[in-house]
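Long-time lurker. I teach an intro course on protein structure, and each term I like to show students one example going from raw sequence to a predicted 3D structure in token notation. This year I'd like something fresh instead of my usual example. Would anyone be willing to generate the tokens for the chain below so I can use it in lecture? Attribution to the forum is fine with me.
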Amino acid sequence: MRANFGALRKRGRRQIPELPSNRLAASGVLMSRSGHPVASGPDVALARTQREAHQKMMTRMRVAAVIFAGASLIGVSGGGVALASASQPARPAKYVVLNCSLKPEVAPRALVMACGDAGFGLRRLHWTSWTSHMATAYGTFYQNNCKPSCANGHIYDYPTRAVLWGSGAAKGHPGWRRYTQLTLIFTGKVRPPVYVLRNGKLVTIRPITQTFPAI
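-- Reply from a regular --
Happy to contribute to a lecture. Here you go:
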């Protein structure tokens, strides 16, 4: 160090050599007590921005992981409607027919059509189709002739084909549909009587088909 000062005197200069810390201070960099540079000004702002961006990215990744895990759990348990429907085709509506208690049934073996006294209806039904357009079956139509009274009447059976058709909402069962009409096609030689009023007189007819509301 003394040699350096002597060389400067010989050259006629009175300068003090700058140490590295002096050069950093001259450039505007702050120094710590231990002599290490401390970031300031634009450097501090840049470092803070980068740190905040990193924290936001990590937060988003954690949230995404939680959402994905929750969606996977819902899909496994069967409650994830949106998740499941995205990969599975929509199920066709379930079609039913209502009984006298307004309970939905699928392909019943018997169907009471007169809910008040069960005076007529279908039994021994064998279904050949059950679709969204119609349901078809063959079986027996029974009817009480109510002679001398409905309590003491005689029950007659008639072979028939039954066709359920029409579409209506099934109350209490979202996504289900119910048949609204029932057409009977009588296939025997003898058909059930129907009483109609013509010209003021009660006339008996025996049509090949009859259509009823399917409750």
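Some talking points for your students: The first strand starts at residue 30 and ends at 31. Residues 51 and 57 are 10 Å apart (CA to CA).
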